[in-house]
Amino acid sequence: MLKKILVISLALNLLVLPNVVFGQTKQKISLLLFNGKVFTADTLGSTAEAVAVDGEKIVAVGKTSDLKAKYQAVKEIDLGGKLVTPGFNDAHVHFLRGAVALLNVNLTDAKTLAEAKARVAAKVKEVKPGEWIVGRGWDHTLWGGKFPSRTDLDAVAPANPVFLVRVDGHVGWANSKALELAKIDKNTKSPEGGEIERDASGEATGILKETSQGLVSALIAQPSPEQMNKGMELALKMAREYGITSVQDNSGYETTKLYREFLKADKLTVRVSEWQNFEDSVAELKRQRDEFASFKDNPSRLKLGAVKGYVDGTLGSKTAAMLAPFSDDANNSGIPRRSAEELTKMIVERDKEGFQITLHAIGDKANRMALDGFKEAKSKNSIEFVTSGSENMRSDGVKMRLNFPRHRIEHAQVVNPSDFKRFAELGIIASMQPSHAISDKRWAESRLGEYRVLGAYAWHFMQSYGVHVPFGTDFPVESINPYQTLYAAVSRQDTDGDPQGGWQPQEKLSMAAAIRCHTYESAYAEFAEKEKGTIAVGMFADLVVHSRDLLTIEPKEILTTEPIYTIFNGRVVYQK
Ligand SMILES: [Zn+2]
Questions:
Q1: For residue 353, what are the domain limits?
Q2: 305 located within any domain
Q3: Residue where one domain finishes, among candidates 178, 201, 217
């Protein structure tokens, strides 16, 4: 038998060899990248020199000489030694809504309260009296740490209702006109999971924390279709320019309609996994899932992803739910959105229906509440859980759920030392955003204390337990720039290079590991690691050619690295 095969293969070789020599049977493909340093992002950290692409997919990865000999490409790109990686997958981004928000009053990087007020004053000149002024991006920790108040805004906008959301999205800042329209006065009770901040005399200050923002935001009209379109164009442009080819988006089920329109018009240059809202009833979530399925979108381009909820607020706003009070605020342990019992009940119900659940949890208490809820779901619905191997049938014949939910916790920012291993035990993904660490480090230690801070932004420690750690940006809370994420992950320094040697440097990752978190791990977090996230045969051709070799340059050079080419679905969609 073996002999026979040998004879046949010899004969075949003889048949094709002469043609190969003269290059006549070179396989026709659409794109060949050669003469580069191809970081495949596989587990071994393998590199290659060339990538062959045909249509949407990668057909070969290897040596320049081998691939040049084998393929004839419509488009050939000589990489000149440049680094190629898989396209970035932003595992947590407010992609569409964030871009739409930037079209309003943008307070990102307003260095002083006066600057923020000036930007509002400029907007007042553009609108009619009585018209709403909305915006986001302010950060009072840059202004001395004291929350601003309604009177600050009344001074520049006496005749317009104004509502400005903090950079983290968890605190709103309203002027008197907006409070009046929302009927918020001395007697208004704070809603569950929120707080209307009051002054010494009991009057609302204009600061609305967490769910209390809804009292005002409910009055503000949704963005117009024109604004949504403009936001989409802006978001997609940013993604192409930063080498982002996949987004796990937190813009809401309704936005899938617009994504679908862009997909049909062949303008959707990222793969979108859109999240549903955990707060919606199970019946509504299922209705959305059924309705979405009826559109028969190409799931590799547009799909429904996790069901996203909130357990608590943020550290910056001191609304994160903590096991013990903040070190710089002895009477404050944050604001959980709801009771642990209620949260667990909701997790169990949604898990039972096969939804992948992802929960925003910042404080150590919030992370524990989420883990407790997942544990309960696992034991209650365990009959459907696959616990090992690829068996889908238990010995007693009970069919198990093949599609393990891979539930997630978003941010996993402050975790009690005893809870790290519970992520691994329960198979919970820790979806983290390194940029948060270098933005928050200014005050994180005083807020958490010298011991608790050791369990904060601990992506390396988390990984040491075998936990999957995808990376995202949380844009517009941080810049959507993935190079900033990589820089933060490997340096633990802010963009000015502080502190020397890095903040809590034991949490630094190698660049290879950081790239893998932003590509492969992100794909894993959305069940897509078999089709994207690494450079291998059969994967979608989502690739970035970088201006510098991220794997060898000094950390500060990472921040000025940029794509030369962004290739999406086998097509060059951006060229520097
Ligand atoms: Zn977010």
A1: 311-387+399-509
A2: no
A3: 217
pLDDT digits (tens, 9 = 90+) for 522-538: 999 999 999 999 999 99
SS3 content of the chain, % helix, strand, coil (to 5): 40, 20, 40
Query: What's the whole-number mean pLDDT along residues 351-374?
Result: 96
pTM check: above 0.85: yes
Ligand 1 center–CA 212 separation, angstroms: 18
pLDDT of residue 116: 94
pLDDT for the residue 404: 54
Same domain, 443 and 358: yes
- AA letter at 150: R
Residues 74 and 103 in one domain: no
Average pLDDT value for residue range 343-360: 95
Say how many Å lie between the CA of residue 568 and the centre of ligand 1.
25
DSSP state of 139: -
- 306 C-alpha to ligand 1 centroid (Å): 13
**CB neighbourhood size of 288 (10 A):** 18
CATH number of the domain to which 502 belongs: 3.20.20.140
Tell me the pLDDT tens digit for each residue of 553-575. Answer: 999 999 999 999 999 999 999 99
Could you say which of 217, 233, 264 is where a domain stops?
217
Biggest distance spanned by C-alpha atoms of the chain: 96
**285 inside domain:** no
How far does the chain reach from its first CA to its final CA, in angstroms? 55
Residue 197 identity (one-letter amino acid): E
CA of 93 to the centre of ligand 1 (A): 6
Computed over every residue of the chain, the mean pLDDT equals: 91
Q: Are residues 66 and 133 in the same domain?
A: no
Helix pair angle (225-242, 256-264), 10° resolution: 70
Q: Are residues 465 and 317 in the same domain?
A: yes
